[in-house]
Amino acid sequence: MNIRKSLVAGMLACTMLFAATACGKAPESEKAPKGQKTSENGQAAETAKDKKFRVVVMPKVVGIDYYNAVKKGVDLADQELDNVEVTWMGPTEAKVEKQIEMLETVIPTKPDVIAVAANDPDAIEPVLKKAKEKGIKVISWDGDAKTRDFFVNLVDYDAFGSALAESMVAQVGEKADIAIVTTTFTAPNQVLWIEAIKKTLADKYPEVKILDTRPAGEDTQKAFQITQDYLKTMPTLKGIIALGAPNLPGAVDAVKQAGMTDKIAVVGNATPNMMKNYLKEGLIKNVLLWNAPDHGYLTVYSALQLLTEGVEADKPFKAGSLGEFTPAKDDISLQIALPIKEFTKDNVDQFDF
């Protein structure tokens, strides 16, 4: 009788243990800590916030002052974020073919995010599609792309182009001939800034005419040479808009060398450190830009937000010390943008990039 009771008790205990196991219940010692997911074998799985994410940030070109400034912000964000590992890499020439070659080598390593400043949105599209097919998130920054999950814009395109046009008109008046030096005819930001410049002039200052637009790449000497040619061949010229950080000093130097600083206004975008002496010497009135280190910093924080909590239209998220940014819907996905900054001789010493 006692033997029968012992057997029954043993069978009941086995049945209860089997039932608990079949229902997926693990012993207390095998349960995942609070806040973590539990895998089927009872082991704790990483949550999104616990994972170490790999982010590749690719500028249009490495080794120039502007992108060195952007990298300062990238490095700062990388230092602040324990769960992000950032790789900064890019071509030594501002050519989309070089970007594509590098991305082809990056994709097989399966980073979590590729953040690229596209030199050409059409040419780079196939390789970015390949990245997305492999499960890699794609962010565009600086130069936009047609395939991306999110866009960390420099500034609002229309607002920046309009500000450049207004700055020029303020110096040359409402009836003048001007010319433009750009980087390329394919870089999205340059193309859209020029469209906004043209629209502002057509709508508000129809007697300000753009005589010519030529590309200099990201090359100070080439911008210098183009400006020299403008000065020699355009006797009615009153102003030059130089787009691309390395191109603005080239244009200003050409005007200075020709002894025409008081006759030719130069407007454009570049870093404050690059233009500090020009501003203080009175060779240029102002420089328009955004905070370049902030752009790199914001790109890294946006990558983390995309990977962890996601981004939604009209839903603000915090980007470290920069505060909150609110994504807006566009034709491709969502984007945010930095505010415009104006550097003058009076405030240029406040900035160091």
Could you explain how this protein is built, in words?
The chain is of the alpha/beta class and 353 residues long. It folds into two domains: 53-153 and 292-338, 3-Layer(aba) Sandwich (Rossmann fold), CATH 3.40.50; 157-289, Response regulator (Rossmann fold), CATH 3.40.50. Helices cover 41% and strands 20% of the residues. The strands form five sheets. A seven-stranded mixed β-sheet has the order 4-3-5-6-7-16-15. A four-stranded parallel β-sheet has the order 9-8-10-11, sandwiched between helices. The model is unreliable at 1-46 (pLDDT under 50). The longest helix is centred in the N-terminal third of the chain and has 21 residues, at 2-22. It has helices at residues 2-22, 65-80, 96-106, 121-133, 157-172, 188-204, 220-233, 247-257, 272-280, 292-308, and strands at 37-38, 44-45, 53-58, 84-88, 113-116, 137-141, 150-153, 176-182, 208-215, 237-242, 265-268, 287-289, 317-318, 324-325, 328-329, 334-337, 341-343.
Protein topology:
Blueprint: H1 2-22, E1 37-38, E2 44-45, E3 53-58, H2 65-80, E4 84-88, H3 96-106, E5 113-116, H4 121-133, E6 137-141, E7 150-153, H5 157-172, E8 176-182, H6 188-204, E9 208-215, H7 220-233, E10 237-242, H8 247-257, E11 265-268, H9 272-280, E12 287-289, H10 292-308, E13 317-318, E14 324-325, E15 328-329, E16 334-337, E17 341-343
Parallel strand pairs: 3-4, 3-5, 5-6, 6-7, 7-16, 8-9, 8-10, 10-11
Antiparallel strand pairs: 1-2, 12-17, 13-14, 15-16
Helix pairs in contact: 2-10, 3-4, 5-6, 7-8
What name does CATH use for the topology of the largest domain? Answer: Rossmann fold
How many strands? 17
Give the CATH class of the largest domain. Answer: Alpha Beta
Name given to the CATH architecture of the largest domain: 3-Layer(aba) Sandwich
* Low confidence ranges: 1-46
Number of domains: 2
Order of strands in the sheet with the most strands?
4-3-5-6-7-16-15
**Structural class determined from secondary elements:** alpha/beta
- Roughly how much helix do the residues carry, as a percent range? 40-55%
Instruction: Report on the biggest sheet.
Output: 7 strands, mixed
The average pLDDT value, as a whole number, equals 88
Shape, principal axes of CA atoms: elongated
**What is the helix/strand order?**
HEEEHEHEHEEHEHEHEHEHEHEEEEE
Distance, first to last CA: 90 Å
Number of helices: 10
- CATH superfamily of the largest domain, by name, is Response regulator
* Strand-residue proportion: 15-25%
The Cα radius of gyration reads 28 Å
